[in-house]
């Protein structure tokens, strides 16, 4: 494995092996993701897409190998990495007892921002008029949008998104794709899993990492 | 887009959110409190109304009930956050994890510990607690219940990923609770006999300071293990 430490490599995987329930999901998986890339991790259900994202986020530990941020093991530069990382799991992290606006305010404040206009951000995800609605009373798509709203106010470079388009309507997906493109142009990278076809991000821009279902 | 939130602000943001959620979910506050009141009021009915007997067992009853009530309420400390994914967000946020778990434990103590301290003197009247012992009762509860919350949170953090962690949680935590129980009840007994009890209080205070400093790190590490 050649050490590649260019300044633009944001996230890299070095010989990652993941074993769940005594089944090897993937082994010796290596890749480098540069600034400006949009990466889709694809593969059938159970092939380890979510596990890979969780390992890259530092939530799970790989069986072997390491995930790196700018060439350094993420466990050794966790503070720096967390400061530059936006992870959205398939669980949205939205509290149903709080309103959409309170959820967004909390998420942004806990990420360290104090200069935002939550009404304007909620407007961008088509939730204006629902600021005061409890998240538990929102539809699945609106619930998801509440979680996604923080993408519109962040300066994190690394976005790890697990199924970001779930329950989002077509127009919403297009808006998200546009946001991803803009983020990539600004020097960030997006790593996501999705089964949906994208209309704006074409195959020429999108880089795919394929995981196959293995029976051993 | 500047990241201008200080640690104190992050701490109070999380504290405020947890209190807000609990206020909208009132059962969470009242269940442990109701349990505490019920257990204590049932004892005079069960063992008879003789004042001597009651005042002899009062410190033990109040403290055991407080301990069980605190344990009863522990499970939901991280469970809801674990189930809806907020815990992952907390683990990945740029704020220090130990600071955030401390905010969560403080919120938990305000919601379950403080009400217990407030009703305890009322229940002590029901149990004919010795007049001299009220000060000691309040002091031990004020110093002891935060220790229960902090130590309990370690157990909860370890078992949050398990589907049926309840029994395991009790087994893990009870041995850690016992020193607090022993020193608290003996302080109240000593006060009843007009003996000085500042030594007992000092030991409970030392446990509080120790767990305040060390528990947040243990809770943080346990959460990382549980979400793995």
From TrEMBL, chain A:
GO terms for molecular function: ATP binding; ATP hydrolysis activity; transmembrane transporter activity. Signal peptide: none annotated. Keywords: ATP-binding, Cytochrome c-type biogenesis, Membrane, Nucleotide-binding, Translocase, Transport. InterPro entries: AAA+_ATPase, ABC_transporter-like_ATP-bd, ABC_transptr_haem_export_CcmA, P-loop_NTPase. Residues 11-213 form the ABC transporter domain. It comes from the Bacteria. SMART domains: AAA. The keyword Disulfide bond does not apply. GO terms for biological process: cytochrome complex assembly. NCBIfam families: ccmA (TIGR01189), PRK13538.1 (NF010061). This is Heme ABC transporter ATP-binding protein CcmA.
TrEMBL record, chain B:
GO terms for cellular component: plasma membrane. It is a multi-pass membrane protein. Signal peptide: none annotated. GO terms for biological process: cytochrome c biosynthetic process; cytochrome complex assembly. InterPro entries: Cyt_c_biogenesis_CcmB, Cyt_c_CcmB_bac. Keywords: Cell inner membrane, Cell membrane, Cytochrome c-type biogenesis, Membrane, Transmembrane, Transmembrane helix, Transport. It is found in: Cell inner membrane. The keyword Transmembrane helix applies. The chain crosses the membrane at residues 29-48, 60-78, 99-124, 136-160, 167-188, 200-223. One of its GO terms (molecular function) is heme transmembrane transporter activity. Belongs to the CcmB/CycW/HelB family. Required for the export of heme to the periplasm for the biogenesis of c-type cytochromes. PANTHER family: CYTOCHROME C BIOGENESIS B-RELATED, HEME EXPORTER PROTEIN B. This is Heme exporter protein B. The gene is ccmB.
């Amino acid at each position: 494995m050649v050490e590649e430490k260019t300044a633009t490599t944001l996230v890299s995987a070095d010989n990652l092996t993941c074993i769940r329930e005594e089944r090897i999901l993937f082994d010796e998986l290596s890749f480098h993701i540069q600034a400006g890339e949009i990466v889709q991790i694809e593969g059938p259900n159970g092939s380890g897409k979510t596990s890979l994202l969780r390992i890259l986020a530092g939530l799970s530990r790989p069986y072997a190998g390491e995930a790196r941020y700018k060439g350094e093991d993420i466990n050794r530069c966790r503070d720096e990495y967390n400061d530059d990382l936006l992870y959205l799991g398939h669980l949205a992290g939205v509290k149903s007892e709080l309103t959409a606006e309170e959820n967004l305010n909390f998420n942004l404040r806990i990420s360290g921002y104090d200069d935002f206009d939550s009404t304007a951000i909620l407007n961008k995800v088509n939730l204006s008029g629902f600021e005061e609605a409890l998240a538990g009373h929102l539809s699945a798509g609106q619930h998801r949008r509440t979680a996604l709203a923080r993408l519109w106010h962040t300066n994190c470079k690394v976005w790890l998104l697990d199924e970001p388009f779930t329950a989002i309507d077509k127009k919403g997906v297009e808006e998200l794709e546009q946001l991803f493109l803009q983020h990539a142009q600004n020097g960030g990278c997006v790593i996501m899993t999705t089964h949906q076809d994208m209309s704006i991000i074409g195959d020429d821009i999108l880089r795919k990492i394929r995981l196959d279902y293995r029976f051993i | 887009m500047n990241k201008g939130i200080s640690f104190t602000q992050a701490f109070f943001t999380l504290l405020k959110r947890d209190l807000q959620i609990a206020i909208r979910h009132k059962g969470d506050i009242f269940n442990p409190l109701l349990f505490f009141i019920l257990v204590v009021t049932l004892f005079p009915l069960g063992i008879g109304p003789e004042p001597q007997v009651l005042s002899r067992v009062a410190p033990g009853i109040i403290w055991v009930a407080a301990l069980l009530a605190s344990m009863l309420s522990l499970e939901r400390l991280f469970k809801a956050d674990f189930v809806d994914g907020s815990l992952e967000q907390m683990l990945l946020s740029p704020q220090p994890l130990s600071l955030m778990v401390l905010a969560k434990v403080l919120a938990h103590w305000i919601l379950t510990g403080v009400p217990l301290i407030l009703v305890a003197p009322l229940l002590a009247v029901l149990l004919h607690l010795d007049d001299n012992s009220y000060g000691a009762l309040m002091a031990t509860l004020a110093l002891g219940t935060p220790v229960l919350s902090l130590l309990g949170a370690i157990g909860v953090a370890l078992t949050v990923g398990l589907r049926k962690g309840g029994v395991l949680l009790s087994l893990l935590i009870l041995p850690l609770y016992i020193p607090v129980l022993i020193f608290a009840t003996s302080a109240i007994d000593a006060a009843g006999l007009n003996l000085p009890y500042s030594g007992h209080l000092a030991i409970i205070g030392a446990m509080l300071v120790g767990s305040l400093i060390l528990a947040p790190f243990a809770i943080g590490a346990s959460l990382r293990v549980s979400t793995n």
